[in-house]
UniProtKB/TrEMBL annotation, chain A:
One of its GO terms (molecular function) is glycosyltransferase activity. It catalyses: 5-[(5-phospho-1-deoxy-D-ribulos-1-ylimino)methylamino]-1-(5-phospho-beta-D-ribosyl)imidazole-4-carboxamide + L-glutamine = D-erythro-1-(imidazol-4-yl)glycerol 3-phosphate + 5-amino-1-(5-phospho-beta-D-ribosyl)imidazole-4-carboxamide + L-glutamate + H(+); L-glutamine + H2O = L-glutamate + NH4(+). Its EC number is 4.3.2.10, 3.5.1.2. Keywords: Amino-acid biosynthesis, Cytoplasm, Glutamine amidotransferase, Glycosyltransferase, Histidine biosynthesis, Hydrolase, Lyase, Transferase. Pathway: Amino-acid biosynthesis; L-histidine biosynthesis; L-histidine from 5-phospho-alpha-D-ribose 1-diphosphate: step 5/9. PROSITE patterns: GATASE_TYPE_1. The active site is at 85 (nucleophile), 193, 195. It is found in: Cytoplasm. This is Imidazole glycerol phosphate synthase subunit HisH.
TrEMBL record, chain B:
The active site is at 12, 131. This is Imidazole glycerol phosphate synthase subunit HisF. Its EC number is 4.3.2.10. Pfam families: His_biosynth. SUPFAM superfamilies: Ribulose-phoshate binding barrel. Keywords: Amino-acid biosynthesis, Cytoplasm, Histidine biosynthesis, Lyase. It comes from the Bacteria. The keyword Amino-acid biosynthesis applies. Pathway: Amino-acid biosynthesis; L-histidine biosynthesis; L-histidine from 5-phospho-alpha-D-ribose 1-diphosphate: step 5/9. IGPS catalyzes the conversion of PRFAR and glutamine to IGP, AICAR and glutamate. The HisF subunit catalyzes the cyclization activity that produces IGP and AICAR from PRFAR using the ammonia provided by the HisH subunit. The lineage of its organism: Bacteria, Bacillati, Actinomycetota, Actinomycetes, Micrococcales.
Length: 212, 255
């Protein structure tokens, strides 16, 4: 952990419960601000892109407040962003939830309905961390809390350009395999809710804060 | 590996205190919700449910401040229910630390409330709390009850859960009024009947008296199990004991 108290800005674009996220980050030693102001989102040591509810509604609300622009500027400057749940899904090419919607295209893949009758997937499932994961350091055999009906089922990173370093991908399983987390330089995302995942979730958040 | 069976202590809150009765009557004190949330989070609970048991009958809103302080003690999901009648009420609860809300009576009298909540926050935020009892007059044999289980509705419970799933609830909490507080075991027949009717996760509630009561509820189709008195008045390691019993029966749990 850094000796300085890290400041975390949680993007507040008017959707969903941010209290638990703020609570968990404060417990991990961060100073938290909930804001939709570019200045605050840019100057914080870390930014959280939360998400809740439907893909299209979340994306529209983010765009209304230029949130995705601040994400882009932070990543361009090499400054940490952690995206959670629908915030994570928005970083992919697109989603098939209630129609067809474009995402930010940072990562390849389309968010699709989980191929099972047992939806929503609500509960604690194992995540198999990618080798050498910084986010999952010390978390090799843990369950995290998921709450979703859609996910990324395939990962096809174009290795045609050798200059591009492939992101690190961790997987989970609910009748089918789906992407649980992506670590990509300053940009990371998780499909589960670390703030609701007990000890394991708090350790993951501490790992993220410790990476600054 | 599959999703763990969730073990959920339930805080039935009345006037700021956790209470517990038998068959929804004769409430007795079980402690401070904030302290209990802290204790259960540390003891390995997978989720907490906070039910304002008298909110509907007394026609008042759930205490936001108490929800807020309870939520701060738990880094696991917190579901809040009791007297939820409007989207504004849901918004205030979510803003005060609830991760999910459960609706009961108001959804029965105004089913559109389910659609309104699901449209705004998604199905995963919404738990339908079904209070039901045996009634031979109903097509399925089960009748929906409201007002904390005190009033019959003449509505068939199985038809109701199917309608609620269609409208957008993400989970169903099954409260058997017949089994509640008896400590004789869950109402397995009711769980089985609902499992056959819907696909969403089911939370079994009402009647747990010992760890051995839990595996049959899972066998009957529950994805999560909820109890109150067993945890409030039982030994400190009761959550672990319940998980031991579930695991011994061959179902996954979170450790």
């Amino acid at each position: 952990m850094p000796t300085k108290v890290p400041t975390i800005a949680i993007a507040d674009y008017g959707i969903g419960n941010l209290g638990s996220l703020a609570n968990a980050l404060e417990h991990c030693g961060a100073k938290v601000v909930l804001t939709d102001q570019g200045q605050e989102l840019l100057e914080a040591d870390g930014m959280i892109l939360p998400g809740n509810g439907a893909f299209a509604a979340s994306k529209a609300a983010m765009q209304d407040r230029s949130i995705l622009r601040w994400v882009g500027q932070r990543v361009a400057g090499g400054r940490p962003v952690l995206a959670v749940c629908v915030g994570f899904q928005i970083l992919f090419d697109g989603s098939e939830e209630f129609g067809s919607h474009e995402g930010m295209g940072e990562w390849p893949g389309t968010v699709k309905k989980l191929p099972t009758k047992a939806v929503p997937h609500i509960g604690w499932s194992h995540v198999t961390p990618v080798a050498d994961s910084a986010l999952f350091a010390g978390l090799t055999d843990e369950r995290f809390y998921f709450s979703h009906s859609y996910g990324v089922l395939d990962w096809n990173f174009d290795q045609g350009n050798e200059a591009m370093v492939p992101p690190q991908v961790s997987w989970a399983h609910h009748d089918a395999d789906f992407v649980a987390a992506v670590e990509n330089g300053p940009l990371a995302g998780v499909q589960f809710h670390p703030e609701l995942s007990g000890r394991a979730g708090l350790t993951l958040l501490k790992n993220w804060l410790g990476s600054f | 590996m599959s999703t763990a069976i969730r073990v959920i202590p339930c805080l039935d809150v009345n006037n700021g205190r956790v209470v517990k009765g038998v068959n929804f009557e004769n409430l007795r004190d079980a402690g401070d919700p904030v302290e209990l949330a802290h204790r259960y989070n540390a003891a390995g609970a997978d989720e907490l449910t906070f039910l304002d048991v008298t909110a509907t009958t007394e026609n008042r809103d759930t205490t936001y401040d108490l929800v807020n302080r309870t939520a701060k003690q738990a880094f696991i999901p917190l579901t809040v229910g009791g007297g939820i009648r409007s989207v504004d009420h849901v918004e205030n609860l979510l803003r005060n630390g609830a991760d999910k809300v459960s609706v009961s009576s108001a959804a029965v009298t105004n089913p559109e409330l389910i659609n309104d909540i699901a449209r705004r926050w998604g199905a995963q935020v919404l738990v339908l709390s079904l209070d039901a009892r045996s009634n031979a007059q109903m097509p399925s044999g089960y009748e929906v009850m409201i007002k904390g289980g005190q009033e019959g509705t003449g509505k068939d419970a199985i038809e109701w859960v199917q309608e609620a799933e269609e409208r957008g609830v993400g989970e169903i909490l099954i409260n058997s009024i017949d089994a509640d507080g008896t400590r004789d075991g869950f109402d397995l027949e009711m769980i089985r009947a609902i499992r056959q009717a819907v696909g969403v996760p089911l939370i079994a509630s009402g009647g747990a008296g010992e760890p051995a009561h839990f595996p049959p509820a899972i066998e009957a189709g529950a994805n999560a199990v909820l109890a109150a008195s067993l945890f409030h008045y039982g030994p400190d390691d009761m959550i672990a004991q319940v998980k031991d019993a579930i695991e011994a029966a061959g179902y996954p749990v979170r450790r």
